[in-house]
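Quick one:
INPUT:
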């Protein structure tokens, strides 16, 4: 059986007319992803606060629900702060670049 080689096709970059925005292709843009993330952190914090009020008033049947919600809110807040710190660090690094 003879060995054959297939020709290598060159990689071509998309032209300016082929490039579309992520919103046009069905993807999420950065602003909407950021807004969605902050909303989910706020929702987790509100849920934990509501369960804390129920626990303090004695209306909460299972204290584990509050503990889980509080931990989820704490982790979401820590992740948000870490992402913010990395974004500020990246922006500062870009600003220090020579022109």
């Amino acid at each position: 059986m003879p060995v054959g080689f297939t020709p290598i096709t060159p990689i071509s970059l998309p032209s300016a007319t082929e490039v579309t925005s992520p919103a046009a292709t069905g993807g999420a843009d950065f602003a909407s992803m950021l807004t969605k993330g902050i909303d989910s952190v706020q929702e987790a914090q509100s849920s934990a606060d509501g369960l804390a009020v129920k626990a303090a008033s004695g209306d909460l049947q299972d204290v584990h629900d509050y503990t889980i919600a509080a931990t989820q809110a704490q982790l979401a807040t820590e992740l948000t702060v870490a992402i913010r710190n990395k974004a500020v660090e990246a922006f500062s690094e870009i600003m220090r670049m020579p022109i």
